[in-house]
Amino acid sequence: MILRCLAILLLFAALPAAVAADTLVEQGRRIYNYRCYFCHGYSGDARTLAATYLSPPPASFVAATPERLDRKAVIDTLIHGRPGTAMKAFGGVLDAAGMDAVAAFVVDEFVSRKAANTRYHTAENGWPDHDRYRDAFPFARGDIPLSRSWETLSAAEASGKRLFLSSCVSCHDRGAPAPDDVAWDSRPLSFPRNNFSLAAPPPRVDAMTSATPYSLHDIPPRLERPGRAERRGERIFQANCAFCHGADGTGKNWIGQFLEPHPRNLRDPAFMSGATRDSLAHAIREGLPGTSMPAWKNVLSAADIAGLLAYISRAFHPLAEASAPAAPPASTGAR
What we know:
Elements: H1 2-35, H2 37-40, H3 49-53, H4 71-80, H5 96-112, H6 137-141, H7 155-167, H8 212-215, H9 228-245, H10 254-258, H11 269-272, H12 277-286, H13 302-315
Helix pairs in contact: 1-5, 4-5, 9-13
């Protein structure tokens, strides 16, 4: 009897710690689902649209082991970021408690239990009757690759592909083709709910409406008679840079507003009037520490960067040439 009572007391003594741990994980889940999912995915596997644009790609937590990725390692990455990658430091965004919660969630949910996170597409999160997208589910899961030609799809599959491309592609895996598949291209087409916040969700929202403030910034400018370098820069910018800076260069698209700090507004006179071709070329080549701007020096050639500068200068704001070097001091005749 004494041993049984002791066992019961020990069980109840452990409950507060277990409850506290569960609370910490749930706090981390809320932060992760708001700030981290876009690159690392709701399931922690980094199979996202953003991941297909980033080199190196975001970390896949499900591929890690508890021995290799523990809470301390996650917190260290959150504090300092990962130089040379798009993983920025969150020291100015999350406090110590928030980082600890995110680390607890990532390690528990993805690294240790290999779980799939919570079901996001609920009415509470702005997705009433999510089953109406059922035809798109095979493309979201990767059961049907997006590179599969339209001619081989059934009517329901073709409907699902159109639905996926118009509503789902921004958050779900881009469907990168296998080596023997036909490559395809796309750009983000869906947008978040206007003014939607996980911290204070409105009583009722619809995930498919209120998107226009963001979509307006995914319309590229039209250039009259662009030169060869400008055409080259336009192709590179719209295929790569527009993902964060917006097709119109303002950084006011959904992804641009999602990132902290926001990507540079390339049409802002206050900044662009002080920018030069040399300073912008350096930022493109080397990236900007403490932001999501990666270094492109191993991706873009000198001609590519020159084309980008020509396009930015024509489409968004004229770029000043580099300041002339200071004249050497006059000779005094001394030897």
